[in-house]
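Re: folding output
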Amino acid sequence: MFIGHFAPALIAATHKDAPKLPVLFIGAQLVDWAFFGLLLTGAEKMRFREGTSVMNPMDLYHMPYTHSLAGSAVWALGFGLLVWLITKNRMGAVLAAMVVMSHWFLDWLVHVPDLTIAGQPPKLGLGLWNYPAIEMPLELALIFGSLWFYARRTGAKGAPLWTIAGLFAALQLFNWFGPVEQDVTTGTSLMAFVAFGLMTLAAWWLERSGLAGKPAGR
């Protein structure tokens, strides 16, 4: 799961008390921001291994702080608390935390067993990465269905809407069909950060297009 992680952010953003869309986009990939940061330090680990799954060669063999259910819950609670401290918006904080938490459950659908409850076996994952005919249309339906829903509810349109749709498509196609790295390097994390950052910038532009000409507030 890659672009599909942004679907809960788009849906949550239509709530009248939701945080800004870029904030929710950060929340949607927060545990991956953290994972690729911890990967740089060696606190969490992965390797590229052919045959890990049909669609993805990443062997995510040690990620207890981000991709365990308990670890994800800590990131979700922390993010929700930060949103509440800044905005004093209780519902917005709850929505932000739920978006962060959704990451683990969406990963559970596609990952081969490499997720945990609290960092120790058993390892969990439904393994849809081994079934491209299911995973690929599922991910596209999630993201483009939620984008359509967001546009209908907010009035977002024009260049920002087409830009974010194009970015979703381009990044997912690269993820599915782009060159496969042989070794984990600093560039592995930097590439992820650039992708997440581009999507967050696109979310900022998209939200502005939906708010243009409307009174302040949702």
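--- second protein (sequence, then structure) ---
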Amino acid sequence: MAMQVAEIESMIRTAFPDANIDVRDLDGGGRHYAATVIAEAFRGKSRVQQHQMVYAALKGKIGGDLHALALQTSTPD
């Protein structure tokens, strides 16, 4: 079953309550998304570690209910 933008955002928000999060459905079919997550929690972490943190927040949905996620992460300026 395809995930909805609100569900993806909610899962990320649970892990990063103060983050600036933008999730977009790229194909309109609920399988390919892009997300930008800006969070203080990423400070001092490599880009790989930041992405791993977001994937962990999605609790194994990547590759299943969530087929593809183009992810951009950063810390606030």
